[in-house]
Amino acid sequence: PLRRAWRWLAAEPATPGWRVVRGIVLIAVGVAFVVDREAILDLAVVLAGVYLIYAGVSTVQRVIYRPRDAAERPADAGSPARAIVSRHRALVASAVATVLVVGAVSAFVGGGGTTTAAPAPGPCNGHAALCDRPLDQVALPATHNSMSVPLPGWFSAEQDHPIAQQLEDGIRGLLIDTHYADRLSSGKLRTDVGDPSQLRRQASQDGVSPQAVDSALRIRERLGFSGKGPRGMYLCHSFCELGGTPLRSVLDDLHDFLVANPDEVVVVINQDYVTPADFVKAVDDAGLGALAYRGPVDGRWPTLREMIASNQRVVFLAENHAGGAPWYRLAYRSITEETPYSFREAAQLTDPADLATSCRPNRGPAQAPLFLVNHWITTDPIPLPSNATKVNAYKPLLARLRECQRLRHHIPNLVAVNFYKRGGLFKAIDAINGING
Asked: How far, in Å, CA of 47 to CA of 37, rounded?
């Protein structure tokens, strides 16, 4: 069968139309080999296993039962006794084949072949030393307002690069905001603000001043954000009028990164102004639901290697409303504790006299398993990269992380910054993890 299949694949069709079709198919298969090599290898192994089972069963059947040619048949071949023997041989052959196939399948399934990912041989989040540590004993570099990036349509940015590049650069914690917004015929986004008082409460949670809220509302009215348009979910910082990215595109980027990097674990905290059901559906539609961490969060956390081996490599947490799936859980009810996040001057994060105040408890219960250190300066209406250069510098950043660790009796698991490329974020994270450069 393999030789026949190869001859069929290698044969050049006679007509030009079928030649074109064959060429397109070969190109598509070649692209699949390049883009998703692991899936192709898995498929090849499965097909090889199926063929070996087929070949083995065929060999055993030929030994047990093979119809004889007329010249080989004895004179009594047509007798009732001979017919009974032939039927017995056929039954034995079928039984042996069944046992072999069932045994092979049972060994595969029972060994976890259909449910358990093979242990990844490489490092965990870039370092072999992290593999045997539970998630709550690992420090991860994170970005605040991860979606606020220099892309068309954004009024200002708080990060240096889009989320896809952040992940490639080593960011493993994403703090995002999700909103409903209408995309108008002009291409602009209009946020579903609902009750203005609710909007102001939401903005205050983002560290946005009342004056900035008033300015944004005036811009919204002045630029004529009117009319109708399809509603969708977008990543925006309080106001999608000032910048928004479709949620689906970012989830696709996260999915592609995790598939291409099977040794990485990521944490996502969603400041959610969309329903849990809608967010969970978007995650599932992007293929991320299968990669979501579904294990316990109130006792022993798995090690990074265990999360990687089970292929549960992204932790989804919600600030306001969880549910919709067992893996989408509230961040600050019992899982995460944090520091304050409203800092207006760099000295508040760099002056040794102010470090204790900057590390005091904010949201979340004491001794929660995950500890978020918020480390950025808020300036309205434009974030200043120069502030990030000061507070993200290696020595002052590490000094604050050490002080927060001492006062809160917990390793900083997520260190969220603005303009992550400026300063020494990754070097400080390595120092907290005890990894030498």
From this structure: 15
Handedness of CA 349, 244, 212, 321 (dihedral sign): negative
Q: What token pair was written down for 274? A: 């969309």
pLDDT, tens only, 34-65? 766 666 777 777 777 777 887 787 777 776 65
Angstrom distance (rounded) from CA 418 to CA 378: 9
pTM comes to 0.71
The torsion of the CA quartet 197, 236, 292, 298, rounded to 10 degrees, works out to: -40
Using an 8 Å Cβ cutoff, are 172 and 125 in contact?
A: yes
Residues 408, 371: Cα–Cα separation, whole Å = 9
Residue 277 CB: number of other CB atoms within 10 A? 13
CA distance 404 to 372: 10
Neighbour-count burial for 412-423, b at 16+ CB within 10 Å, e otherwise: bbbbbbbbbbbb
Q: What is the pLDDT of residues 239-259, one digit of tens each?
A: 888 889 999 999 999 999 999
Q: Is the C-alpha dihedral spanning 231, 237, 241, 245 positive or negative?
A: negative
* Paired sense of beta strands 189-191 and 244-246, if any: unpaired
Contacts of 363 (CB under 8 A, 6+ apart): 332, 336, 337, 338
